[in-house]
Amino acid sequence: MIKIIAYSSIGGHSVQLLKLDKILRKFDTIYITSYLTEEQKKLIDSKRFKYSLKDFSRNSNLLNFFWCLFSLYSILKKENPDFIITTGAAPGVLAIILGKLLRKKTIWIDSIANSEKLSLSAKIVLPFSNIVLTQWEHLQVKNKVFFWGKII
Amino acid sequence: MGTSSSKKQGIFLGKNHIIFISVGQQLPFDRLLILVDNYFKNNQIFNVEIFAQIGNSSFFSPNIRTKKYISEMEFIEHFKKSNLIISHGGMGNIIKILEDNKSAILMPRIAENNEHRNNHQISTLNYYKQDIGLNVAFNESELHELLDNYFNGNLPDLFNTNKTESLIFKNIENYIVNV
Fold first, then answer.
1. Do B95 and A16 lie within an 8 Å CB cutoff?
2. B167: pLDDT strictly greater than 90
């Protein structure tokens, strides 16, 4: 049975990732999310998300970044998935890069919110991820960034 | 439903209007709350119940019941029972509004106001406004005009209802199985 780790930050990223559930539940899929505040953490559905991480973004401090890196690495080593699929945000970048180092297959799905250009995160993961998807046809780049449709 | 002058005198609408304002999980959006609040200060409308999820904010108004964060279940409960959704331009909310075909008014966050890291909500809402007729306000007068439309019973409907399922689902499944 193919095992998948599916990561998304709380909010619009999760809404998009969870719409893929009808496909992902055909495999052994584990969902991970991340939260910004302790209040948000309490509201996470633990039946849906097996793990939740403290989020970080480009505005966060280095401690948050390393904690997230360490947490993701531990999860990937423990769960040993075949695939890592993420709709972002920033921790998804780490998940893809760690995935590449651990020889997993990876898929980055750029948020449908990025309608005018690819996100910074997508550009960072381009050299690492097996597949980088945009949800806007005009943003596809031959052999690099693919358009497979919109989630919504 | 009544002219705007009778609205300002205070007209009994004969119906409970339940309004849900959502600013999303990441950042506060006080400007939206203040502009909505201004509308209800300027217009005496009875029988309206307003609840707002306000994020990390200390916004207060006697017209609006607020909570900083709500669970997914609470969100769904407010969302389903509301007659009107007022929302920031977050994709999570846009998706739910489209899925349930809810009456909604949306306003994008602006980076220059420190409401977001970048201006992608402006691009996103512009796209959906043009492509499917989402009701979008870029400033106070547009917001108030849309609210007038709502209370007059003529908030425009969406105009593009393309129901064919996206190929992304099959494409991802095929990739996972075949690679």
1. yes
2. no
Q: Is B114 on the interface with A (CB under 8 A)?
A: no
Interface test with B, best of A22, A116, A136, A145 (most B CBs within 10 A): A116
- For residues B158 and B133, is the Cβ–Cβ distance under 8 A? yes
**Least CB-CB distance to B68: which of A39, A148, A149?**
A39
ipTM of the assembly?
0.93
The model's pTM: 0.70
Give B24's contacts in chain A (Cβ within 8 Å).
11-12
CA atoms within a 13 Å half-sphere pointing along the CA-CB vector of B122? 12
Q: Tell me: the pLDDT tens digits for B29-47?
A: 999 999 999 999 999 888 8
